[in-house]
Amino acid sequence: MLNFQPWKISLIVLTLLIGVIAAAPNLFSRAQLDAAPGWLPKDQITLGLDLQGGSHLLLEVDVKAVIEEQLNGVVDSVRTAFRKANIGYSDLGVKGNSVTAKLRDTTQIDQARTLLKDAAPGLDQSVANDGSITLTLNDQAILDRQRNAVSQSIEIVRRRIDETGTKEPTIQRQGADRILVQLPGVKDPEHIKALIGKTAKMTFRFVDTTVSADQARAGNLPPTSEVLPSAQNGGDGQPMAYYVVQKRVMVSGENLIDAQATFQDAQPVVSFRFDSLGAKRFGDATRENVGKLFAIVLDGKVISAPVIRDAITSGSGVISGSFTTQTANDLALLLRAGALPAPLTVIEERTVGADLGADSIAAGKFACLIGLVLIVLAMMLLYGLFGFFANLALVLNAILLLGALSLLGATLTLPGIAGIALTLGMAIDANVLIFERIREEVRNGRSPIASLDHGFNEARRTIVDANVTHLISSLILFMLGSGPVKGFAVTLSIGVLTSMFTAVMVTRLIVVLWYRQARPAALPV
Amino acid sequence: MFGGIHLIRHDTRIDFMRIHKPLMFFSIFMVVASIALVAVKGLNFGIDFRGGILMEVRTSEAADLGGMRETLSNLGLGEVYLQQFGSPQDVLIRLRQQEGGDAAQGAAVQKVKDALGTSVEYRRTEVVGPKVGAELIWKAIYATLLALVGIAAYIWFRYEWHFGLNAILATFHDVITTVGLFSLLGLQFDLASVAAVLTIAGYSVNDTVVIYDRIRDELRRYKKLPVSDIINQSINKTLARTTVTSGLTLLSVLAIALFGGEALRGFAIALVWGIVIGTYSTIFVASPMLIYSNLRGLRAKAAAQSTGPAGQTNVPPAGASPAGQPQTSAPKTAAPKAGATTTPATAKPK
Fold it and tell me: B17 to chain A nearest CA, in Å?
C-alpha cells in the first residue's frame, strides 16, 4: 500500500498539472487570452449553440430534382440526336429513373443505339421487340449524382454564408442528403435562410416574339419556348408580367466570373462579368440579334428583358430591374457564389438568443456550485478527514473534466452542464465504496495499513465494473445523439473516466502521503 | 480525530428477502400501470418527436397572454399553446406542425414574428419538420435498446448470464416506470428526456453492479450459506454505500432541478425519479430476483474448478465475522489499534 512508486506519483501529479493548465484558460476572457504570451494554452471550452446563442439549420438537398433534371437533359439530347439522324420516334419522355422512346421504324434500332451511346453516355440501354428503347440510370449512377449534388451544395452554401460575413460557421454533410449548418451568434437566421433557399440558377435567353404572352398562356405555345413570370410582383401580389422565353440558353450563369452591386443613374443594379467563353457567346448572340429582346432569368423568373442595342463584346454588363440596395447585394452575392445543383429545404431549425444562452450558463453554474458545496459538506460530515481527501479529489476531478473538455475541443451544451453536476454526484461514489470498505476492514479487526490496502483493492474492481456499464450507455448516447444530447454524453463519458482516475489514483495517493506523515494508530474513518 | 458519522449502523440487518415478494408485485404493478398509462394517455411528445414549432419570447412588460393568444389564434396556424414560465415576461409559444411540408413551417414562424412585432425578444425558436421528427423517434428507441444490450453483454461477460438478465430486467423496470412517470405527470418527452432515461439506465446498472459484486464475493466466501441469506447480507453490507451515494447524487440532481433554470427542469426531475427508482430496484428487484436463478449450480461449477480448500467451505476466511452475525465485540466507530490482539483478527501479511 505504502509503496507508491515515484514514477507513478509523478505521472499522477503530471496528469493533474496538465488538467489544471488546460482548464485555466476558462477563467479568463478571450481578450485577456489574446494578450497573453503565445506559448500559453488558450483553448477554452467550446460552448454549444444553446449556450452561446446561434442558429442550427438542417437542410435537405432535393436529390430527386437532381435526377429529374438530369433525365430531362437526356430527353433533350435524345430528341436532338434523333432529329439530326432523321429517326422517327414517339412517346419520348421520363418514366421513373429512365428515359423511354419508341421508334417508328424498328430497323433503325441499331443505328439509334449507337447514336444514343454518344448522346446519353453512362446510361444502361435496353430494347424491346416493339422498338421501344429504355435508357436507365443505374443505382450506382444515381448515388454518385446525389453525392456530387450534396458536395456541390455544401460548397455553394459555404460560399454564400461566408459572403454574409457570419463568423465561424460549421457546414457539414449529415447522412445521404442532409447538410447541417451551424451559425454561432446568428440571432435571426431568416436572411441566411432566404439566401440558402435560392437555387440561383441564372440564364440569358431570347424572348420569343412569335406569340404574345396572352396567346401562349391560352395554350398556343411553341414547344421550344415557355412562359415565365416576372420576378417583380404587381400590387395584387401576382407577377407584374409574363414573358414567352425560348428554352434554349444563350449563356448560363456558370459563365459568370464576377457580380457586384453598383449604382446606375442612382438606381441599384448588378454588374457582371463573363469568362472568355461566356463573353464570346454573349458577343456573338447579341451581334446577330440587335433590336431583339433578351431575358435575364433567375430561378424560373424573369428579372428583366432589355432590348439589345449593340453587340456586347466586352464580356460585361449590368442587370437592372427595380432592385433595392439589399436585393441587388443579395443577387450579386448569389451570382458570385454560384448556383445550387438542387433546391434546399430547411427541415429543422433551432435558434437560441445569446441572452438566453448566458442566462442558462449562469443558472447551470449556480446549480453545479450548489451541488458541489452540498456534496463537500456532506462528505466532511460523513467521513471526516477521509471525506476531506475525497473532496480534494472531487475538486481536482472537476478541474480535470473542464481541462479535458477544453483540450478535446468538446462542445459544452446545456444538458452537458447537467452532466457535470451529475458526474460530481456520482464521482463521489467510488470514494464512498472505498471508505465503506475500509470501515468494514477496520471493524473486522485489520490493522490500519491492511484496512487501507484491502479497502482500495477490493473496491477498485467494483468501481471499474460499475463505471464501465455507465460508460457504455454514455458512449451509445454519444454515437446516436445529436446536438445538445451529444454534448451531455460527452461530458458524462469524460466525467466517468476522470472520476475513476481521481477516485482510484488521486485519493489513494493523498491517503498514502497522509499515512506516511501521520502514521496513525487507528484510521479516522 | 473526527471520523465522520455512520449513517447506517454496520450491524444493520434488514430482512430484505422477507419483503421482496409483495414488493415484487408492487414493481410488476408499476410496470404494467406505466405501460397502460402510456398506451391510454400517451406521452406529451415535444416537438423533437412530433414536429412543430416552439418559440420562447420575452415581452418588455408582463406578458398579456390573452391578447397574445387572440393575436396568434387569428393567424390560422391551428391551435396555439401559450405557457408562462419563469418570469411573468417569459412566454413559451407552441404550434403544431403546419400542413404543407417543410417550407410551411418557416412561413408560420415568420407569420408569428410579424404578428407579435419587434417589441418582443425572440429568445429561442425551434422548428422540426415532419421527416426529422419520425427519424428522431427511431433513433431514440434504437439508442435505448442498444444501450441495454451493451450493458447486458458486459455484465454477462463479467459475471454470469443470471446476473446480466436480472440487471437488465431491473433496468427495464426503471426505464419503463420512468416513461410512465412522464406520461402520468404530462412532462414533455423530447430528446433530452431520452438522454435522461439512458442516464437512469446507466445509473441503475451502476448501482446494481455494486451489490452484485458483493453478492458474488460472498457466494465465494460463504459456500454453504443459503443464497437468500447471502443476498440479504450483501445488501445490508452495501447499504451504507447505497444510501450515501444515492443521497449525494440526489443532492446534486436536486440542485439542477431547483436552480438549473427552466430548460433543465424536466430533465432534472426525471433524473431525481431515476435515482430513487434505480436505488429501489437494485435492492428490491435486481438482487432478490437472483434467488430464482440457479446460483447454486454455478457455485458448484465454480467450486469444482477452483483449487481452494474444499473442506473449509463453511469457514469464513480469517478476519471475517461469522456469516450474517454482527460482530458484537467490535467497537462501533473506533477502530482497533494497529496490531492489537484484542480481536481475533490477523492482518493479512503484505
Answer: 23
